[in-house]
Write a structure and sequence with these properties.
alpha+beta; three-stranded antiparallel sheet; two-stranded antiparallel ribbon
Length: 128
């Protein structure tokens, strides 16, 4: 059982359930949350680690073009390679959302190195 091998730990941010117990989560969930945290953090937001994060936030006011799609893909790939050593990024695909014209959908296919388990994550990114 790969999930037992990885174990469980406290959820971040720390949360308490209805019975007052600290909520736990699996290592796979922790990796997923770490990826989302990297994508949601703009470089310069963290005082003690100013280079942490993903540079997509600088692109918020850009026009929705093929060039922007490529830049978002590059920034996401670079940030995950730099800040999440527990995964191999298999693919990053960026495409405009058909329903919301100011949103890009960033699909990340990744493999957790310790278990060889594959996952994907779709992260919405709003522009303009």
């Amino acid at each position: 059982m790969a999930r037992e091998f990885l174990g469980r730990g406290w959820k971040f941010p720390i949360a308490v359930d209805r019975d007052g117990r600290i909520v736990g989560e699996s290592e796979d969930e922790k990796v997923r949350e770490a990826i989302v945290m990297i994508l949601r953090t703009a470089p310069g937001e963290r005082m003690m680690r100013p280079d942490f994060g993903c540079g997509i936030h600088e692109l918020v006011f850009e026009s929705l073009t093929d060039e922007l799609v490529g830049r978002v893909r590059t920034e996401v790939t670079r940030a995950l390679a730099a800040w999440e050593p527990r995964v191999d990024v298999l693919a990053v695909q960026v495409q405009p959302d058909r329903d919301v014209h100011t949103r890009l959908l960033i699909q990340i296919d990744y493999r957790v190195r310790s278990t060889n388990s594959r996952f994907n994550l779709v992260f919405p990114f709003y522009v303009q």
